Amino acid sequence: MSEIESAVDYYPAGQPKFRQLMERPNAGWRRFIWIFWALMGPGLLAAIANNDAGGVIAYTVTGAQFGIGLFVPLVLCLLPLEFTIQEMSMRLGAATGKGFSSLARQRYGAFWGYYHIGTLAFENLLTLITEFIGMTAGLIILGFPMWLSVLVCLALVVTFALLTGYWTKERVALFLGALNTVFLLAAALTHPSWSAIGHAFTTWNIPPGDQKVLTWYVIATIGNAIAPWMIFFQGSGTVDKGVTSRELRFSRIDTAIGCVLQVIVAAGIIVFGAVLFGHVKTIGQAGPADIIGALDRVAGRLPAVLFGLGLFNAGFLASITVSLSSSWSIAELFGWAKSLNDKISAAPKFYTIYIGSMVIATLAILLPGLPLNLIAVVTQVIGGILMTPLLIFLVLMTSDKGLMGEHTTRLFGRTWSWLMVALMAGLTLITIWQTLTNL
Which residue from 132, 160, 203 is spatially nearest to 376, judged by alpha carbons? Predict the structure, then answer.
């Protein structure tokens, strides 16, 4: 039996929930909407969760430090890049029924399987720290003390694991993703200049200042839009949900909508942060609470509170998706039970990784003197650097006809994908060079 045939029969004991819903006797456009609702999930969540707490902090600092002239158009231009990566990851999982780490080990040897898992675990742990930084800051602005904020955040993300079944967990996560749009409301309340935003697209000026710092933030912005964990989450989420090559068309729509929403919200956060442009001299060293306090003084109490709530929600959603990407990938590499349909007793190692990584991140943010903003930006830069080898393997595997069959990436797609790899490799070399010259 081929790998594609085994993917179609991935759920021999019964159909996954979404396919049961798809087979309801609806017709016409109602059936299309119902099928889309049933299939919506992995692509949308992987994209929206890219606007995580660390990313929100980094976008806000970027807008406050450089304005909107360069970075708002840049974020929107990243849409094709983000969609290409997530579509390849989704297609790889749907066509093979296996996640990225397992396929990398199977096709290229154990070293590369462990390498990808090791780098993912390291980057994800840094990312989780930024998620808890954002969540606690969002609760502190509501009057919660630090210790209570930390306990509430940990309790919420652990409770998610106790929900019943993949379908329920995915619907809860989608609800959290919809709340991401609060940043657009907060940005609107700052009364941004639409003429200035339009001018940014027509001129796309490079802002004055330290060009090395500017390049660092450009790489951080790209690293946030195409974080490494999303490759693992999108592929493993597709497999766990039971999506196969038969549902590729709807899964591409799911992924495309998620990518569009992600860049729009990210651009809104930069516009929101730009209200602080010129008002906070040490914005690069400020923590989330300092940013919220500055927003309160400059933009008003309501936008600051909405930002705090949005920061909490962004961290909550991303802490779930980021930790799941680690749990799925590690469990699959070692052959452990790994489905969200499993209870904790049925997949103890899978859920131990999920909960354990949360606990480590929680303890880390309690360390005194932790440079919170620096960690947020550095995490995005590291993510950008780690993407290059991941993309090389992703392009190779989706171009492998023996693995993908009729769903192999075609010539134009392969050309575009390798250009994307070259771009990321170039940015990585620039980052390394600037880091070494600044030592």
Answer: 132
What is the per-residue pLDDT across 179-200, written as a single tens digit (0 to 9) for each? 888 999 998 988 888 888 887 7
**Structure confidence at residue 85 (pLDDT):** 92
φ, ψ at 186 (rounded to 5°): -60, -40
- Identify whether the C-beta of residue 64 lies closer than 8 Å to the C-beta of residue 210: no
Please report the DSSP string for 221-257 in residue order: HHHHHT-THHHHHHHHHHHHHT--GGGHHHHHHHHHH
In a domain, 385, yes or no: no
The pTM score is: 0.86
- Using alpha carbons, list the distances in angstroms from residue 133 to 214, 219, 410: 24, 22, 42
Q: Give 31-74 pLDDT, tens digit per residue.
A: 777 777 777 888 999 999 888 887 888 888 888 888 888 888 88
Which of 165, 263, 211, 155 has the alpha carbon at shortest distance from 434?
A: 211
Tokens representing residue 171 in the block? 């619907």
Residue 3 predicted with pLDDT over 60: no
Buried-state track 1-31, b at ≥16 Cβ within 10 A, e below 16: eebbeebeebeeeeebbbbebbeeeeeeeee
The answer to the question of residue 309 being in a domain is: yes
Tell me how far apart the alpha carbons of residues 379 and 78 are, in angstroms, rounded to a whole number: 18
CA angle 242, 347, 320 (to 5 degrees): 70
Q: Is it the case that residue 380 has pLDDT exceeding 50?
A: yes
Number of domains in the chain: 1
What percentage of residues in the chain have a pLDDT greater than 90?
26
- Token output for 108: 């290229």
User: For residue 365, what is the DSSP state?
Assistant: T
**C-alpha to C-alpha distance for 166 and 169, rounded to whole angstroms:** 5
Candidate from 81-85, 119-123, 408-412 with smallest mean pLDDT: 119-123
Contact 221, 62 (CB under 8 A): yes
Residue 16 inside a domain? The answer is: no
Q: How many CB atoms lie within 10 A of CB 154?
A: 20
Residue numbers of the domain that contains 56: 48-380
In a domain, residue 421? The reply is no
Segment 387-399 mean pLDDT: 91
Contact 133, 146 (CB under 8 A): no
What tokens does 380 get? 């995005």
Taking phi over 0 as left and psi of -120 to 50 as alpha, with beta for the rest, 66 belongs to alpha
Structural contact between residues 274 and 64, judged by C-beta atoms closer than 8 angstroms: yes
Distant-in-sequence, close-in-space partners of 211: CB < 8 Å, separation ≥ 6: none
Separation between Cα atoms, residue 59 and residue 127, nearest integer Å: 15
